[in-house]
Amino acid sequence: MRVELLNTGTELLLGSVLNTHVRLFAEALFPLGLRIQRQVTVPDGPPIREALIDAAARGEIVLVTGGLGPTTDDVTREAVAEWLHLEMIRDDAVLAAIAARFRRRDLAMTPRNARQADRPHAAVVLPNPHGTAPGLYLAPQPLDAGFSPHLFLLPGPPRELQPMVSDHVVPTLRQIVPRRDDVQMRVLRLAGVGESWVEEQVGAALLALRLELGYCARPSEVDVRLIGSVNDVARGEAIVRGAFPGALVSADERALEKVVVDLLAASQQTLATAESCTGGALADRLTNVAGASRVFLGGFVTYANEAKTRDLAVDPSLLAAHGAVSEPVAEAMAEGARARTGADFALSTTGIAGPGGGTDAKAVGTVFIALAAAGGTRVERHFFPSDRETFKTRVVHTALDLLRRALPLA
After folding, report:
1. Which residue among 113, 158, 276, 316 has its CA within the 20 to 30 Å range from the CA of 246?
2. The model's pTM
3. Dihedrals phi, psi of 146, to nearest 5 degrees
4. Residue 213's beta-bridge partner residues?
């Protein structure tokens, strides 16, 4: 069955709000054997009706997000009712739930809020305990020629949309579409290799397996997406593992930082960080992982030389002789963080993010990354000439991968 995704909201087209809906739906639908064929974003107001008619001509399932709020620009319900020639009714149970939500928060409910209880009479209410606007499901309705698609009207805010998709949309779709167990998708995440190099090494062999193959490159990592039969996907994974044994971060879409935290936890070891050029981004990536407190003891952001000396006991003579961006200082930073916290491992970063500050000997983009452990300290020099944000992303990723390669596999 073909699936169309229609996102409504002028704020999405103005760039005021980042549209993250397609990923949510794609991940939820694939296990059902469904894939989004097209995504369209339209502004609030009259364009919604035209987009609905267009989507209905293309797909058997249409998912609509946004336009269910209380204000005058929220017209999705009305547009659907007009298109399908359905009477709008006020749902007393929904109205009572909205009123109760306002009472719990000691807020005054306005007549505009009450219109969120309106729905086309054929619509089934999808409860929304995380907001005032319920979702709606409409089974196919008769049209002048044929029938409308299965239609889901859903709230736009992710904190409301995500639980509604898992709690109501997916269970409803399970009743609509036949189950498929013969197709599988696997994403193999590789670190420290380029997209073109990966394709050159394994692309032909993977395509020979009749796999649907895709690549997604980000700073310092590449995802290889395999879609096909269970057996073909397994054979494809074996090819990638054989070609890049040290670069494979995960085969289950875990991010690098999650893999690192899991490996540290499995080996009952701990980590500290000492950052200069990354400004705390390394610690931030680690602490975004649930359960990081089991392994991450603490981090130091020592941007100034004085902070490196004061907080990490970096010898001022090293700074004077070699400069802050140097192998000896990176080594001293990592060892200082490890000594201060008692961690099993410590990572340090010191580099030149730019756009100024480079020299002939140390150009903008130069960075030293150190990993201190009981057996000694390893320091790597890298060169990432780019904008500041990308530079920091690549440094953090490279530091985490340096630690990953040093840890025993779980």
Report:
1. 276
2. 0.74
3. 85, -150
4. 226
**Which tokens sit at 80?**
């659907």
Mean pLDDT of 336-345: 98
If asked whether residues 329 and 354 sit together in one domain, one would say yes
Query: 216 near 23, Cβ under 8 Å?
Result: no
Is pLDDT at 410 greater than 60 in this prediction?
no
| Residue 128 sits in the same domain as residue 54 | yes
Co-location of 103 and 215 in the same domain: no
Which residue pairs from 324-327 have beta carbons closer than 8 angstroms and sit at least 24 positions apart in sequence? 324/276, 324/350, 325/277, 325/350, 325/351, 325/352, 325/362, 325/366, 325/367, 325/368, 326/350, 326/368, 327/368, 327/370, 327/379, 327/381
Task: Specify the range with the lowest mean pLDDT, choosing from 107-111, 275-279, 378-382.
Answer: 107-111
Domain count, the chain: 3
Same-domain status, 126 and 208: no
Residues 263 and 333 in one domain: yes
Percent of the chain, pLDDT > 90? 83
Q: Is the link from the previous residue into 355 a cis peptide, with omega within 30 of 0?
A: yes
